[in-house]
Amino acid sequence: MVRRPEDAIISNLYRKVVGNDVSPDRDLFEMLLVSYYNYYLFVKKNIRKINVIRFETSIENEVLLTKKIAEELGFEVQLDDSLTEMLSDYKEMMQKKEAQKESHASSLPNENRARFKTEYLNKVLNSPSYSMAETIYNELISYDLLSE
After folding, report:
1. How far is CA 20 from CA 23, 98, 104, 129, 147, in A?
2. Domain limits at 79?
3. Contact status, residue 47 vs residue 142, Cβ threshold 8 Å
4. Does pTM surpass 0.70?
5. 26, 51, 104, 116: which could form a disulfide with 18 (CB 3.0–4.6 Å)?
6. Is 85 helix (H, G, I), strand (E, B) or coil?
7. Residue 47 confidence class, pLDDT cut points 50, 70, 90
8. How many domains, the chain?
């Protein structure tokens, strides 16, 4: 899974800052961006052994994700209404569970996360290391397993 650097960094920043006594300063932004870059540099160097899937595509089309992963693993999947319904039911069940136990560590979108992203997005985008993170992201999405 490869996620746009600004979204990945904001998500990691949120986990590190909210509920902890950590200041979201420039050094933390830089550390997260450099970690992002180094991780995806490893992916790029091993691209022949790794399937890349854009995070955004995977959450927008669970049926296509399921189909492509099954194909890669050598399984046959019947793409019919029952699969679509099953995936929809699962998504709804997970959202209900999140609502019951909402916490700062939740990975589902919520109002607090949206406010946090608005507050810190420009700081991430203007960080010195952002351009290298964006470059490696753009290189890797050309290998997206889900692109048709």
Report:
1. 9, 21, 10, 24, 38
2. 5-143
3. no
4. yes
5. 104
6. helix
7. very high
8. 1
d(CA 5, CA 130): 8
**Residue 148 counted as domain residue:** no
Compute the distance between CA of residue 137 and CA of residue 139 in angstroms, rounded to an integer.
5
**Token pair 């909402």 is at which residue?**
102
* Residue 102 belongs to some domain of the structure: yes
Residue 30 lies in a domain: yes
For all residues of the chain together, what is the average pLDDT? 85
Q: Quote the CA–CA distance of 1 and 146 in Å, as a whole number.
A: 11
Predicted confidence at residue 127, as pLDDT, reads 94
State residue 99's pLDDT score: 66
- Cα–Cα nearest to 133, from 61, 30, 59: 30
Q: Are 146 and 72 in contact (CB under 8 A)?
A: no
The CA distances from residue 53 to 4, 45, 64, 66, 107, in Å, are: 12, 16, 11, 12, 18
| Other residues' Cβ atoms within 10 Å of the Cβ of residue 138 | 11
